[in-house]
Design brief:
The protein has 280 residues and is mainly beta. It has one domain (2-197). Helices cover 5% and strands 41% of the residues. The protein is built from one helix and 18 strands. It has one helix at residues 11-23; strands spanning 2-8, 27-32, 36-41, 50-59, 64-72, 94-97, 102-108, 112-119, 122-130, 144-147, 176-179, 185-188, 196-199, 220-226, 232-242, 252-255, 258-264, 274-278. It has a seven-stranded antiparallel beta sheet, with helices on one face. A six-stranded antiparallel beta sheet has the order 13-14-15-18-17-16, with no helix packed on it. A five-stranded antiparallel beta sheet has the order 2-3-4-5-6, covered by helices on one side. The protein starts with a strand and ends with a strand. The relative contact order is 0.13.
Length: 280
């Protein structure tokens, strides 16, 4: 797993930073401009074809400078991103940014990319790539999760309705799409009759669990479940829930010899609203 951090000049510069980092870590750049990026991940064995795209959306009059996220089964040059073969669709997943300096943190493998961007005092989150499914490749060949912090295009980073993809289920926010076994796409985020969302098994204990007896934070993996079938679709790799007790944004904690950086869910600061992003 590779990790980088820094400060981009604005939301378009951040897209260029992401393209460069992805290209150095197992992703081919299929299309790139100042406002668009489409990638193909090769997977850990170099044999996969993982298709993910980003297109910027701006409305300067209202201060909106966002990324719209896409996934697909394949890529065709010249097509709109939402019209790629078996696309995840239009107006489904967004990351809310701004046209000013953006501190960022990115981790990547050839299977998936996770980004956290600091916008004012909020933290915006993005996932592009595959889950780790409890199944063989034949049983679940394309566990692709495309997710951000909301599904409304005309919205800003300061909206109290935004929620990170790993916590959106708790706050009833739709923020992405997931390709389920059989190849169809489902809405991702808030659990309803036919949606998928992330949960951590010990979420209800996060407010009371402090640290282990060895003075380490306890990390709780995130799993994605299909609400209608109750099937576990896979683990979100590289990120866990962590208690906010004596913790804060951008802390580096070490658990089992591994370094993690702590981030809140957008603007939230309750003990149960923090994640730990693996750095090594």
């Amino acid at each position: 797993m590779a990790y980088t951090s820094g400060t981009a000049a604005n939301y378009k510069d951040l897209l260029a930073v992401l393209a460069t980092f992805a290209a150095a870590n197992g992703w081919a750049v299929l299309e790139q401009s100042e406002t668009k990026l489409y990638l193909r991940g090769e997977g850990l064995a170099g044999l996969d074809e993982i298709y993910c795209g980003i297109e910027t959306y701006e409305d300067p009059a209202n201060g909106y400078y966002n990324w719209e996220l896409f996934g697909s089964w394949a890529y065709r040059a010249g097509r709109a991103f939402h019209a790629m073969p078996m696309s995840s669709g239009d107006d489904k997943a967004f990351v809310y940014l701004w046209n000013a300096a953006i501190p960022y943190w990115i981790v990547a493998t050839p299977r998936r990319i996770i980004l956290v961007a600091k916008i004012s005092t909020t933290y915006q989150h993005m996932h592009l790539g595959l889950l780790n499914p409890p199944a063989t490749d034949a049983q679940y060949p394309y566990p692709l999760l495309i997710a951000g912090t909301g599904s409304v295009k005309a919205r800003g980073y300061s909206s109290l309705s935004n929620s990170a993809y790993w916590n959106a289920n708790i706050y009833a926010v739709f923020c992405g799409r997931i390709c389920i076994p059989g190849g169809t796409w489902k809405n991702y985020g808030y659990f309803n009759a036919d949606c998928c969302g992330a949960f951590s098994p010990n979420y209800a204990l996060r407010d009371t669990i402090i640290k282990s007896i060895s003075d380490e934070y306890l990390l709780d993996p995130f799993y994605v479940t299909h609400q209608a079938t109750t099937n576990n679709l896979g683990q979100i790799e590289g990120i866990c829930r962590v208690s906010g007790y004596q913790n804060s944004a951008e802390n580096i904690i070490t658990v089992g010899g591994v370094n993690y950086m702590v981030f809140p869910d957008c603007h939230r600061s309750a003990y149960a609203d923090y994640c730990a992003l693996r750095l090594n």
